[in-house]
Design a protein that fits this description.
The protein is α+β, with helices and mostly antiparallel strands. About 40% of the residues lie in helices and about 30% in strands. It contains five helices and seven strands; from the N terminus they run αβββββββαααα. A three-stranded antiparallel sheet has the order 3-2-5, with no helix packed on it. It has a two-stranded antiparallel ribbon with strand order 1-4. Helix 3 packs across helix 5. The radius of gyration is 23 Å and the shape is rod-shaped.
């Protein structure tokens, strides 16, 4: 009987070091403050002291409007939408977690979306302020490309 209980306890201790994520979740394994591994739907063994983080691998949508005056001092309002997800290469998942933290664990990360929205509005306002009204109305691709380049 003691052997069965001992085996059960040993199995539970070993399984505490096995971590896995669902097919639609990021799994980050962090060792000594540095990213050891990251993946969507990943499974792996972790060492004692390793930290693990899971968050959804969703694509997020941010809507925004920006108001600014053009070079001729004409008021312009621009509305737009940005779709973002976590960069899958190199330290993309770790950087995203460092900057946005536990907010990523919700299905609608309000802090992350708010920061991205503020960045978009600032970039658009800068672009509008440096363009003429004629360019803004007739050459919208120039405005869109400038925003894409900045982001």
């Amino acid at each position: 009987m003691t052997l069965v209980i001992g085996a059960f306890i040993l199995k539970n201790m070993i399984m505490n070091f096995w971590v896995s994520a669902n097919a639609n979740e990021w799994l980050l394994v962090i060792r000594s403050g540095k990213l050891k591994s990251a993946g969507i739907g990943a499974c792996q063994w972790r060492l004692p002291g390793d930290q693990t983080v899971k968050f959804p691998s969703l694509i997020h949508q941010v809507n925004f409007t920006a108001q600014q005056v053009s070079a001729e001092m004409q008021g312009i309002e621009v509305g737009g939408m940005l779709i973002w997800s976590i960069l899958r290469t190199e330290d993309g998942p770790m950087n995203c977690y460092k900057f946005f933290g536990d907010d990523l664990q919700s299905s609608s990360p309000t802090v992350a979306n708010g920061k991205i929205q503020a960045i978009c509005v600032a970039i658009i306002r800068d672009r509008i302020a440096n363009m003429t009204l004629n360019d803004i109305l007739k050459n919208r691709s120039k405005l869109k490309q400038g925003v894409k380049d900045e982001i």
